[in-house]
Amino acid sequence: MIEMKFLKTLFLIMVLLTVLINANSQQRPVTVSYPANWWTGMKNNRVLILIQGSGISGGTVSINYPGIKIIKQYSGVGRDSNYIFVDIEISEISEAGNVSILINSGGRTITHNFPLNQKRKKTNFQTINGSDVIYQIIPDRFANGNPSNDNVSGFFEQTDRTNPSGVHGGDIVGITKNINYIAQTGVSVVELTPIYESNQLVQSYDKFAPTNHYNIDPRLGTIDDLTLMVSSLQTRQMKVVLTKVLHKIGDQHPFLRNPPIQEWIYRRPEINVSLNTNNILFADPYASPEDLEKHYSFWESYDIPSLNHNIEEVRRYLIQHVIWWIETTGVDGIKIEDLQLNSHLLIKELCEAIKKEYPSISLIGAPKTDLVVHNHFWKNGLTQESMFTHITDLPLYKRFENSFADYRNSNESLRELYKILASDMIYDDPANQLITIGDAHNLTRLFTLAEKDLSLFKMYVGFLLTARGIPSFLYGTEVIMDGLATGGYGFVRGDFPGGWESDQFSAFNPASLSPRQREAHLFFLKLLEWRKNNPELMKSKTIQFEPNNDLYAYFRSSNQKKLLVIINNNPNSPRRIENNKFIITAGNFNKVINVLTGEVSAGLGNLILNPKSILILELINGN
Question: Between 20 and 30 A from 107 (CA), which of 87, 376, 410, 598?
Fold first, then answer.
């Protein structure tokens, strides 16, 4: 009898708790906002907050917080919209604290907490310049520092290293644990490909299809992991760049299923989705409005929709999220991928907002174009006022990628390099503003371009690290990782050897490398160490000589030193160079050092270059 009473009492308590929980959930539905927080003291002090929650559409918003004023508010427009836009202004008198946003909807008041944090004291960023070298990392493929986050509940893809296009388990902690290796390699900038949450059904490892713009993908780690990595690299006097994607999202993004505004996402085109975009269209002054509209609404693939940049709210949302990542992490640079697929208005407003807040930050544009004039257009914009501080140099890469290949005409391919550099007159400061690409996450590996021939590989690397501009290469290129882009990006983005405990050998331990890997690694180390010791020379002007008889030469020149690089591109015959060939440009010097061998001489003498080889000499005027 006592047991029956106890069970009845327990049942009544459970029913009561259920009623209370349900009532509470109705009074306080789960709400999220984009952004989730902001800061005091920001020059970008007008913030468009997008609040999402069940049943809040049509409600009215009030804020009673010192210094915060609501400029306007309105509900989302669309099928089953559960959004409210709140446009606020944060004045100088506002202090850090928790802002209560009250939403009065359907006779109930819902409170959404919006943290207002203190702005970072950091105002000066380490600007990227010609003395730097960029090391591009795909976090999922570099090193697995925390196996516990390999598989996360609620995410479609689980770890599968046997699948070239699958999730492999690399993460931010893996990068932090191997900072010593990165620093010892001699690079000075770490560029991360996107780290957005990307809960896609397939190919979610590269994070180029965001499903949440404000979250780091939990399989890569936490925001604390990221800020620790950034500060650890910066402590070593290295710079960090984050890649941002503005023109597309993943089809698992909640904005696709229930957009805040119906036109937020372009409808999927009726025609077949194709990867063949027209990369010159948005830089064409004569482009038809029909062509422009077609390409703005282009879907990259069946599961990657395009965002409509014509809508003001979309542009403000995207701009604010980039500022949020800069302020949250303190990175030194931002890179905009596939710049040619973004609207001019968005890019102009983005660059203005970022420069307003962070005048010394590096802004890198990465358009796909092989035309110098269009590359310059994407850097400077419609008004010819510089939008980006840096621009990737794909026009040079398009000539560089096959310049030393055996099947190419050996002198003509050198002339193509020569002509592209001769077009530098269009840029303000090519040595410090152009990113010279060796390879990248979406390009064939350098060792593969070199036909897996170490002599050719050294020619490619030697040019990359001595020509004007800021060299950039993909992780693992220094240990001759290979991969052909046309075979699938997953093969280019292989796992860095030694990044997983089960790996048979490790690039983090040079003793475990093969003889060819060690030779390539040592070649990189020597050149990168020399660059590090001669920063002014790498930021200096270039003087080049017209290619002739399969020979191409150029100087980098500063006050006390000159660098002379000579390339013999002939596949069969050595080339002899008379000692008076460079007499005017070389000027006075009394010491010549072979950068790669360390050999020292008093003059140039008569130089003989072996077939398919590069000679790198330092000319010094002084003791």
Answer: 87
DSSP line for 332-361: SEEEEESGGGS-HHHHHHHHHHHHHH-TT-
Q: What does pLDDT average to over the chain?
A: 91
- Per-residue pLDDT of 29-65, as tens digits, reads 578 999 999 999 999 999 999 999 988 988 999 999 9
Provide the 3-class DSSP secondary structure of residue 148: helix
* Boundary of a domain, candidates 64, 83, 118: 118
Domain count, the chain: 2
Q: Which residues contact 470 (CB under 8 A, 6 or more apart)?
A: 128, 129, 130, 132, 133, 134, 189, 390, 432, 434, 435, 436
Q: Tell me the C-alpha distance between 507 and 87, whole Å.
A: 51
Tell the burial category of 285 from Cβ atoms under 10 Å away from its Cβ (0-12, 13-18, 19+).
Answer: exposed
Residue 404: is its pLDDT beyond 70? yes
Residue 93 lies in a domain: yes
Instruction: Please report, for the domain that includes residue 64, its CATH number.
Output: 2.60.40.10
Angle, helices 515-533/454-466, rounded to nearest 10 degrees: 20
Looking at residue 508, what DSSP letter applies? T
* Helix or strand (DSSP H, E) at 115: strand 108-118
pLDDT tens digits, residue range 442-478? Answer: 999 999 999 999 999 999 999 999 999 999 999 999 9
Tokens of 577: 């160079």
Q: Which of 89, 118, 147 is the last residue of a domain?
A: 118
Residue 17 three-state SS: helix
Nearest to 306 by CA among 334, 348, 335, 346: 346
**pLDDT at residue 257 in the model:** 84
Q: 356 CB contacts (<8 Å, ≥6 apart)?
A: 43, 44
Per DSSP (E only), the strands in 177-245 are: 189-192, 196-197, 212-216, 239-244
Supply the pLDDT for residue 578.
83
Domain with residue 561: its CATH number is 2.60.40.1180
Amino acid at 114: F
Q: Is residue 109 in some structural domain?
A: yes
In a domain, 396, yes or no: no
pLDDT band of residue 28 (cuts 50, 70, 90) is: very low
- Domain range for 603 is 541-620
Is residue 102 domain-resident? yes
